[in-house]
Structure formats: structure tokens, C-alpha cells
Write a structure and sequence with these properties.
Number of helices: 2
Strand order of the largest sheet: 1-4-3-2
Number of strands: 7
Largest sheet: 4 strands, antiparallel
Order of helices and strands: EEEEEEHEH
Structural class: alpha+beta
Length: 88
């Protein structure tokens, strides 16, 4: 989980918004003052041709990077504990 507080002159709203693609919750308590909470997901990368695990990644950016090299790869969501156990 990554938490940030920032000023955004273009965000003149009060409330909350959940971005499903980025798995990030944006909360705006005051206009232009935004709190973002990013929920990081962990994935196993499964090869298209072999059907076996070929690696591990985290976050939506990690998935995008893998898809550049392996466009047909699939992903299985795993827990943080399992990710740390398998990658260390």
C-alpha cells in the first residue's frame, strides 16, 4: 500500500473515487488537496505456451511491462505473503 498527499490545481472536487484499473482510491477532503491510497496487487506470470509459472510481478505497471515482452501471458493474483515467499 502506498499513500500520498498532493496538491492538484485541476481537481476542484470533494469526495472519493476508486480507479479500478490502477487499484487506487482518491480522497479529496478539501478542493485540490488529494489523498491517494494505492493498493498493490501481486501476480504470478503464467506462460501462454507452457502453462507454467514463468515469473512474478507486482502492481498494474508490472503487468504492463510483462505484456510488452510476453503479450499472451496470463496473470494469477496471489497474496503478498505468497509473493514474498516465492521471490526470496
Amino acid at each position: 500500500m502506498k499513500i500520498r498527499l498532493f496538491f492538484a490545481w485541476y481537481d476542484f472536487w470533494v469526495g472519493w473515487f476508486y480507479d479500478q484499473k490502477k487499484t487506487t482510491l482518491y480522497v479529496c477532503f478539501l478542493p485540490m488537496i488529494v489523498l491517494s491510497i494505492e493498493f498493490i496487487s501481486y501476480y504470478e506470470i503464467i506462460g501462454y505456451y507452457t502453462g507454467k509459472v514463468i515469473g512474478y510481478t507486482q502492481g498494474s505497471k508490472g503487468k504492463e511491462d510483462v505484456l510488452i515482452e510476453e503479450p499472451k501471458a496470463t496473470f494469477k493474483k496471489i497474496s503478498k505473503k505468497e509473493y514474498l515467499r516465492k521471490t526470496s
